[in-house]
């Protein structure tokens, strides 16, 4: 009997375990996790912070699901990997033997690297323990400073607002999430934040966190301004956890290097999810992403390959639908470019594939609250963004995903203007009906 | 919006509520469970969404609580095939 060991218990690991069980009812599956909370919806932590869901709701698996999955759970931290002996060393207890090992160790928030970062009150939002810490510190009358860009920064801002905390949001650059959003889109989000009482500080960098009795008391900016606060949220991006793979001599770059079969440089070890840097045979590039959908799919493909099949992970169009500053936003395919001064690595909940500047023409239309932007290629749509009213979200995803021919409407799309949405919707309906 | 247009849009909304069901786009679901939490009759909407199956629970009120509370655009109303077949 083959023993599969899965190191990590996020969505990718769970998807792999479910696929292995589905493929082989008698396989021995061991899941190792250092997270004492086990499997929960990590993106759902944002809604736990706002108070929209109670803690217990974030656990999707019920007792019968665990029984059906039939895995052995091991709580522990992996500290070493002996590839010759096929042994995973844990901090405590006996080493764990494996035939096939899947590394789904995830990614961790990047440090700010400023003095005072170890003070109580400096928080991140990687896991349930972080969310609990934030809630223990956030109460009406407190003040927080949030630093960084992307999705998690705003999730933290909104969570704190909902708990009655006054929030200062520090941006190094001129606008929010500048490598994905364009200027009008950033403006919509920033206006909403201001409306909710957030104080935005542009071109502002934190250089020191000041404290008293080990607790955060203020921050100092590069310009010398001191902002008094009880909490500092750091959200400048996440980096794959590479320590174990690197110390075991596996190939690593930005992530753990894997082939299209999600196999590392050791044929018995696989890696997937936001710790993996995956080779894409379609573009011959490698990419790291931290989205749930691809994480789930990679877990499935890795498991099928661990079970002896040979199936390549072929990337589909990456999509994420989010609520930022109470505005719904769908990001589909390639939409951005350039750099974001507020992120030093990929943001949680985003994908490097969004940042490839496609050979396309951008066209857009919108109002103060709703916005539609399309990346128009020669024959197909390559990406787009729907902000505000989400009626066009599914049609856009479908048109990009199925690479529907847009030749008949291309010139109309490029004219932009208020009819842009209608043109897109009508094309989707007519193609959908034909399909 | 004049009265006729307003009534027509309300009538369309009610028709959808009466003849539709909730369908999910599973690739968007992050299993946060807000949908199930907001269901007034405790249907496990999340499980349906995760598996990509429409909510055909005969108790579903099509009240739209799950659709409107989902922060990831996973759920939407679609006309149920049952009614389309009957009309045909």
Key terms for this structure?
heterodimer, A: 435 residues, alpha/beta, five-stranded parallel sheet, 11 helices, 26 strands, B: 88 residues, mainly alpha, 47% helix
Topology, element by element:
The complex is a heterodimer of chains A (435) and B (88).
Chain A (H helix, E strand, L loop, with lengths): L2 E5 L3 H13 L4 E6 L11 H6 L12 H7 L2 E4 L2 E5 L4 E4 L5 E2 L2 E4 L3 E3 L12 E2 L4 H10 L5 E6 L1 H13 L3 E5 L12 H13 L3 E3 L4 E7 L2 E7 L4 E3 L2 E5 L2 E3 L2 H5 L8 E3 L10 E3 L4 E5 L4 E3 L4 H15 L12 E6 L2 E7 L27 E6 L4 E6 L4 E7 L5 H9 L8 H5 L5 H15 L1
Parallel strand pairs in A: 1-2, 1-7, 2-3, 7-19, 9-16, 10-11, 10-16, 11-12, 18-20
Antiparallel strand pairs in A: 4-5, 5-6, 8-17, 13-14, 14-15, 20-21, 22-23, 23-26, 24-25, 25-26
Helix pairs in contact in A: 1-8, 9-11
Chain B lengths: L2 H17 E5 L9 H5 L6 H7 L13 H5 L5 E5 L1 H7 L1
Antiparallel strand pairs in B: 1-2
Rg of chain A computed from alpha carbons, rounded to a whole number of angstroms: 23 Å
Shape type of chain A: globular
Q: Structural class of chain A, please?
A: alpha/beta
Distance linking N and C termini of chain A = 45 Å
**Overall pLDDT confidence of chain A:** 91
Q: What fraction of residues of chain B sit in β-strands?
A: 5-15%
Mean of all residue-level pLDDT scores of chain B:
82
Describe the main β-sheet of chain B briefly. 2 strands, antiparallel
Largest interface: A-B, 24 and 19 residues
**Total strands of chain A:** 26
- Fraction of residues in H or I helices of chain A: 25-40%
Sequence stretches where pLDDT stays below 50 over 5 or more residues of chain B: none
Shape estimate of chain B = elongated
Question: Which sequence of SSEs, written as H and E, runs from N to C of chain B?
Answer: HEHHHEH
What is the strand arrangement across the widest sheet of chain A? 3-2-1-7-19
Helix count, DSSP H or I runs of 4 or more residues of chain B: 5
What is the CA-atom radius of gyration of chain B, in angstroms?
A: 14 Å
- Give the quaternary arrangement of the chains: heterodimer
The largest β sheet of chain A comes out as: 5 strands, parallel
């Amino acid at each position: 009997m083959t023993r599969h060991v899965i190191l990590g218990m996020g969505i990718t690991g769970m998807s792999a375990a479910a696929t292995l069980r589905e493929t082989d009812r008698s396989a021995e599956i061991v899941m190792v996790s250092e997270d004492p909370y086990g499997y929960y919806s990590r993106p759902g932590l944002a809604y736990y912070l706002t108070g929209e869901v109670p803690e217990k709701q974030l656990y999707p698996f019920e007792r019968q699901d665990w029984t059906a999955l039939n895995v052995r759970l091991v709580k522990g931290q992996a500290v070493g990997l002996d590839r010759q002996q096929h042994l995973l060393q844990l901090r405590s207890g006996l080493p764990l033997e494996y035939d096939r090992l899947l590394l789904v160790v995830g990614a961790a928030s990047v440090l700010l690297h400023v003095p005072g970062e170890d003070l109580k009150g400096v928080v991140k939002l990687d896991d349930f323990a972080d969310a609990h810490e934030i809630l223990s510190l956030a109460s009406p009358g407190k003040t927080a400073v949030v630093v960084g860009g992307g999705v998690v920064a705003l999730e933290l801002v909104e969570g704190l607002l909902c708990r009655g905390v006054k929030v200062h949001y520090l941006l190094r650059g001129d606008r929010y999430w500048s490598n994905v959003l364009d200027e009008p889109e950033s403006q919509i989000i920033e206006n909403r934040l201001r409306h909710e009482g957030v104080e935005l500080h542009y071109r502002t960098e934190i250089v020191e966190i000041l404290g008293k009795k080990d607790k955060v008391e203020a921050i100092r900016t590069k310009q010398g301004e001191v902002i008094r606060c009880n909490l500092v949220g750091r959200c400048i991006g996440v980096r794959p956890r590479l320590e174990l793979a690197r110390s075991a001599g596996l190939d690593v770059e930005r992530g753990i290097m894997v082939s299209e079969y999600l196999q590392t440089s050791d044929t018995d070890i696989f890696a997937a999810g936001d710790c993996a840097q995956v080779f894409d045979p379609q573009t011959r590039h490698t990419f790291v992403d931290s989205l749930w959908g691809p994480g789930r799919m990679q877990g499935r493909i890795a498991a099928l390959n661990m079970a002896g099949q040979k199936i390549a992970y072929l990337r589909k169009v990456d999509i994420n639908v989010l609520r930022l500053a109470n505005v719904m936003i769908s990001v589909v395919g390639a939409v951005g470019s350039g750099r974001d001064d507020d992120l030093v690595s990929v943001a949680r909940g985003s994908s490097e594939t969004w940042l490839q500047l496609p050979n396309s023409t951008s066209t857009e239309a919108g109002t103060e609250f709703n916005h539609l932007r399309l990346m128009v290629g020669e024959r197909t749509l390559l990406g787009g963004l729907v902000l505000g009213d989400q009626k066009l979200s599914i049609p856009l995803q479908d048109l990009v995903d199925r690479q529907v021919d847009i030749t008949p409407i291309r010139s109309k799309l490029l004219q932009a203007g208020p009819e842009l949405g209608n043109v897109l919707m009508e094309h989707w309906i007519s193609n959908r009906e034909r399909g | 919006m004049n009265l006729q247009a307003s009534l027509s849009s309300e009538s369309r909304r009610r028709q959808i509520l009466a003849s539709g069901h909730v369908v999910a786009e599973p690739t968007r679901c992050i299993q946060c469970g807000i949908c199930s939490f907001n269901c007034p009759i405790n249907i496990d909407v999340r499980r349906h969404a995760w598996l990509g199956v429409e909510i055909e629970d005969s108790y579903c009120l099509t009240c739209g609580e799950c659709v409107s509370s989902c922060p990831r655009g996973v759920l939407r109303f679609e006309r149920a095939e049952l009614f389309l077949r009957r009309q045909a």
